[in-house]
Amino acid sequence: MQLHPVAVSGLSVAKARDEHYHNPPDYLVLEPEDTASRTANLQQTNTNGYKFQGSLAEFLKAERIVKRWGESGRKYVPKTDYQLQLRELIARFPYRLDTNFAKMDRIVHPEIEEFKTRVHGSNFHGKTIGEWNRLLSSGTEELVKEELSRNFQIVEDGNPVVR
User: Fold this and answer.
1) Are 78 and 14 in a shared domain?
2) What digits encode the pLDDT tens for the residues 33-80?
3) Domain around 55
4) Is 28 in the same domain as 69?
């Protein structure tokens, strides 16, 4: 199997993530507050994503607030004054922390997407990685057993699974 290394700027990944997700008031990307004075185990360094969870009436109120921020009010900015505006929304309206926000597979980044395409197209034991992925996540247990037996000589109870 051919290796497919990739080296991508962390800054470009963070920028792609923030630009992909940040859409106030529906979705907010927040920088951590200054935690430098805390002990090392309490210092926060992760950026978080928050999804709006309020009613339509609350959303419309939040939308009016964001409109008052002006033309650039929807553009993500890690500066303190903008982050305070975002925190005002979180304080006034219901949001939930999105734990999937930073998963690499959800960030639209050209170099990462090209890497995923290369990897998913790589052949491994008669199938592409993408085909193995679809097979293994299909939930068809018998088909998975059969393919594992055929391609890797994996047996069940001492007997091949291939029919």
Assistant:
1) yes
2) 654 555 555 445 577 889 999 999 999 999 999 999 998 889 988 888
3) 10-106
4) yes
Provide the b/e sequence for 95-125 (b: ≥16 CB within 10 Å). beebeebbeeeebebeebeebbeebeeeeee
pLDDT digits over 98-133, tens only? 877 666 667 778 888 888 888 888 888 888 888 888
Could you tell me the two tokens for 81?
């004054």
| pLDDT-derived band at 89, boundaries 50, 70, 90 | very high
